[in-house]
Structure formats: C-alpha cells, structure tokens
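Re: your question from the hallway

Yes, I did run it. Sequences:
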Amino acid sequence: MKFIRGVLGYMIAGMIVMSVWGPFASLESLGIIGGWLAAFAIIGPMWFMNHFLGLIHHEEGSSFVDMGLGIALVGIFRDVFLFEGVATFMAAVPTMLLVSLGAALGGFTAAKVSADMAKGGKA
Amino acid sequence: MTFPTLPLMVATVFGGFLFPFLIWLLWGKLVENFGPFGGWMAALFIVGTTWTINHGVGLITQSGGAWVDMGLAAGVGLLVASTVSGGKFGKAVPNILAAIVGGVLGGLILSFFL
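Structure:
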C-alpha cells in the first residue's frame, strides 16, 4: 500500500506538471509570469498532498525523495514515449548528468551550510 | 546536441545547484513559521522564481531529446542533503523505485493524449 501511495504521489504530481505547466507559461496565455504562477497553482497543492499530508510515505530515518524526482521522470518518459524512445532518452543524458552533478553539489553544500547556520550566532 | 560550450555546461550545473540549495535552506523554515501556507509560499517564491531562471530564461540548457525538468535537481539534491544530514539512503530506495514506476506510468499516459 505504501509503495502504491508513493507511485500515485510521484505520478500525479509529474502528470500535472508535465501537461499543465507548459500551457500556463505559453505565450498565448501569460508567458513567463504564467510559469511563475503555475508553480503556486501546481506545486502548492501537490506538495501539500505529497509531503505535508504524506501521501508519499518515508520510512523513519529515511533520506528524502522529493516529488521533483517523479516530476522529472514523467517529463523524460513523456517525451520518450511521444518521440523516438531510446534515442530521445540518450539525447537528454548530458543535461541529466550536468543537472544531477549540480544538484549533488547544491544539496551537499546546503546541508553543510544549514548545519553551520544552526550553530547560532548573530544573523 | 546543444552543449558545444563550457560556459553553457557550467550554467547548467549551477541551475542544478541552485534549486535544492534554496529548498533545503528555506522550505522547512517557511513551513515552521507559517504552517502549511508556508509551503504555498515556498511553491511560489522558491519553485516559481527558480523555474523562471532555470527554464523561463534558460539557465539550464537542454541538450535535446527528452525535456529535463529542474525537479531532477530537487530529487537528487535533497536526497544528498538529507543523507549528509543523517538520513539512511537504503531506506529511501523504495521511494526511488516508486518515483521511477510513477514516472514511466505517468509519462506513458501523458503520451496517449499530448
């Protein structure tokens, strides 16, 4: 059940982002400010469902797997199924690797920085 | 392939750096201070504003093929941050598998009508 809850949480967030965000941000609607507002309209409720109410379950003491991973994977597989399968996937690998490298550095740095900030002292 | 230059690669790495960094430092504090509404504020001010730089104006360059969303950075970055902060990676594996299954299924269903 907990696994199914996770599948649903990651999948629903990903499906809404990967079908609705684009039209929100398209030039026929609002353009870039539409994309900014899409974050409120989509990520707000999806975060509330998945990570505040806890549709996506994390075992006690587990590392955190953000719904963003599901969102990114839905986007990648949407295009894999829509276009040229493996070739479509492979063409995106450079971006995936560079973004993941940056993310690992960013996550590591944030953990170290927030631990240091928690030591206190003047803000 | 649109990664001919080192500067674009550096920019893309930084786009990945930025998103989990901001989430880790700000999201929890916003919820602490404002309750669940803090999460909506985070959605707008962290995700919305970071989306604008990463995808709106294109800090992250797409090499082509499938769209790579900055959500990948949230997934990888927060996994690293929480593991560095004492979380057990092994216990997160079922969640990673659930995200993969959900990602494939969700992508498949979207491809039926888009």
